[in-house]
Structure formats: structure tokens, C-alpha cells
Design brief:
Layout (H helix, E strand, L loop, with lengths): L7 E4 L8 E5 L10 H7 L5 E4 L3 E3 L2 E3 L3 E3 L2 E2 L1 H22 L6 E6 L1 H12 L6 E5 L17 E7 L9 H11 L3 E7 L7 H17 L7
Parallel strand pairs: 2-3, 2-8, 8-9, 9-10, 10-11
Antiparallel strand pairs: 1-3, 4-5, 6-7
């Protein structure tokens, strides 16, 4: 699968940074939506930002859902594999070590990022997941080998069930990930505190040796 398989935005690194970002938008977003967020939380990082290939009444998504809060798990599996192939191809083309690539996903994008972590961990070094949902227990036990993951939930989120964050954390920890769970006084949308927490967390990973691979 080539780099043209997803319509996407790519920007080379503008500074010597320890990690680069794979940006995964929410429902109705596109390849440009997450760029301003990336510039706040990881200035200078290289950016890979694909557009989801599923259309829900004209709104791009990374995989189908049957209703709000009811995910099409088989489509999630298939499209996670396709996205992983794309990410691997782009990373190779631009000389980005998978160990230095962190997914930053919001909502539907955070859910497909879980697909990469659980099904194809070889393409990522870690992840920041905003407002992610628990997908399924029926996933292989692949080794996440100390990969750092930040889960950020909104206490007043009407879309994500309150038990989902601890379930996601447990699932990732069982596979060896180093998981940090944070909640903010927010609904499903992001607030300034989300950005501050993510920026600090990424900066700490850069300084702690938690980032796998080249620095």
C-alpha cells in the first residue's frame, strides 16, 4: 500500500525533536484539523496526517459505526490494518523511525489509534488518545513493550462511557504499555487543559528516555 492510499498532509520536522506525530482526526475532520494542536503540543515535530476513508453522511471517519457509540468492530480491524500499512510506508519514505512516531488521535481518530497499538504495534512508539472508547476484548496479545500511552478523558463526556478509560488502560497495560490516565472537567470536545497535559506529557517522555528508538 503506497503513500497515496490515504489523502494526507505531511510536513517535515523543523527542529531536532525526539518524536514525530501521526495525527488522527475525529468524525467530520480532515488531514488539516489536528495540525494546530500538533504545533502546540510538539513544536517542530514531523507530521503525518491522513484523512479517514469512510464517509458518514459526508463526514470523514477512519472506520464505520452502526450508531453513535456502537462501533463496527470488524471494520475497525480491517481499516486499522490498512492505516498501519500506510503509516509504515510513509515512515519509510521520510526516514521516520516507527519507535519515534507517536499517534495523536481524537475521538474516532483515538479509536483507530488503538487499532494500531493493539493490532500493529510495530508502526508506533506511543500515543496520545483524546476521548477514546473501549473497542473490544477480542484482540491478540501483542507486545507493547513499554510504549508510553496517554489517555485523556472528559468527565462530562456524553459519548464515552465512564468505565471505558480504565478498561482501555488495563488492556494496554496487560500488553506492557506504560499508560497514564488523566481526566479533565470537559465534555467530548477538547479544552485548554487537554493541550497543556499532552504537551507536558510529551516533553516528559522526551526527557525520560521513555521514547523508544532514536533521539
Amino acid at each position: 500500500m503506497g503513500t497515496q492510499s490515504f489523502q494526507h498532509f505531511y510536513r517535515s520536522a523543523t527542529a531536532a525533536v525526539p518524536h514525530h506525530l501521526l495525527l488522527l482526526h475525529g468524525t467530520g475532520g480532515d488531514e488539516n484539523d489536528m495540525v494546530p494542536l500538533a504545533d502546540l503540543i510538539a513544536p517542530g515535530a514531523a507530521l503525518i496526517s491522513p484523512r479517514g476513508q469512510v464517509s458518514e453522511n459526508g463526514a470523514p471517519r477512519f472506520f464505520r459505526r452502526l450508531a453513535q457509540g456502537v462501533l463496527d468492530v470488524e471494520d475497525w480491524r480491517e481499516r486499522s490494518e490498512g492505516l498501519a500499512d500506510f503509516v509504515a510506508s510513509v515512515s519509510t519514505e521520510h526516514g521516520i523511525s516507527p519507535n519515534a512516531l507517536f499517534a495523536v488521535g481524537y475521538s474516532n481518530g483515538a479509536n483507530i489509534a488503538q487499532g494500531l497499538l493493539l493490532l500493529r504495534p510495530d508502526v508506533l512508539g506511543g500515543a496520545v488518545l483524546f476521548r477514546s472508547m473501549f473497542i473490544t476484548d477480542d484482540v491478540p496479545m501483542k507486545d507493547l513493550a513499554g510504549r508510553p500511552v496517554l489517555l485523556l478523558g472528559g468527565i462530562h463526556d456524553p459519548i464515552t462511557p465512564p468505565n471505558d478509560l480504565p478498561r482501555i488502560a488495563e488492556q494496554l497495560q496487560q500488553r506492557g504499555a506504560h499508560v497514564t490516565v488523566k481526566t479533565v472537567q470537559a465534555s467530548h470536545g477538547l479544552i485548554r487543559e487537554d493541550i497543556i497535559i499532552a504537551q507536558r506529557w510529551l516533553a516528559e517522555r522526551a526527557g525520560s528516555g521513555d521514547v523508544k528508538g532514536e533521539r
